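Complex record, four chains
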Amino acid sequence: MINFILDPKNGVPLYRQIINQIRFGIASGQLKSGEQLPTVRALAVELKINLNTIAKAYKELEIQSVLESQQGTGTFISSTKVELNHDERAKKLTDTCSEFLSVTNAYGFSHKEIIEKLKMMKP
Amino acid sequence: MINFILDPKNGVPLYRQIINQIRFGIASGQLKSGEQLPTVRALAVELKINLNTIAKAYKELEIQSVLESQQGTGTFISSTKVELNHDERAKKLTDTCSEFLSVTNAYGFSHKEIIEKLKMMKP
DNA sequence: AATATTGTACTAGTGTCGTAGTACAATAAT
DNA sequence: ATTATTGTACTACGACACTAGTACAATATT
C-alpha cells in the first residue's frame, strides 16, 4: 500500500508526481511485485482529481513495464522485476547525468565541487 | 568572441541554448568581462532566428547580472565578476543537485551508483 | 444473463511556452 | 539636428502540456 500526497502548486504535474511516488515506492521496497494499486476511480476520488490523470500516470508506467493494467481487473506492480530492463535503466542514468552536467557545467561548477555537494546532500 | 551553434530539434529552446553557451563561454574564460556580445539583430541574422529570441536570452542574463545591456550601445559581459553573487551561485548548485537527486532517487539509483557514474562521465 | 467494476478512448478547454512581426525609445554617429 | 544603430515593448500565433468531462469496452461478480 502507499499513501499518495499531491502538491498542486509544486510546478510538477500531478500525473508526474504520481509516477514518481510509485517509482520510489517500488525502489524503496514499499510496493512489492504483484501488489494491486488503487483503481483509477478510487484514487481520483481520494486525491480529488480527474481519473484520467491517474490513468495517464498508470499508462506511462505500464509502457515502461513497471505496471500491468487489465480492464475490469485493476492495475498491479509488474511481476517481472524492474531490474530486467537493465539497458533502459542505464540509459536513464546516463541521460539524467548528462543533462545535469550540462547545466552545472554552464554555470561553471567544477566536477569536484558538484560531487562534494552531492555527497553532502546524501539524505 | 564566441561562435553560437543552435540545434532547433534539440528539445532545448533556442533562447536557452544561447544562455547556456554564453554562461559556458564566461565560465571557460572564452568571454571576458566588458567584452561586447553581438547585437540582437546581428546575431538574429547570423542564426536566422527572430531578434526577440536573442533579446530574451540577453535579458534573462542581464537580470542575473551576467550581462549589461544599454539601448543604443549594445550588450556586454558584466564587469562585476560573476563570482560576487556567491549566494546565488550556492543556491543554484543546491537547487540543481536537489532536483537531480529527486529524479535519480525516484528511479532507485543509489548514491554510490550516481557518483560513480558522474566520475566516469568526467569530460 | 445481468449488473457492477475496471481500465480506455475521445474530446475539449485552459494555460503556458517559444518564437516571430512590428513598432517604439534611447544612445551613438554623422 | 539628423540619421543610423541598438535594445525594448507589445502583440499574436502556433504548439504543446495538463487536466477534466463523458462515453465506451473488457472483465469480474452476482
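Note: Chain B has a mean pLDDT of 90.
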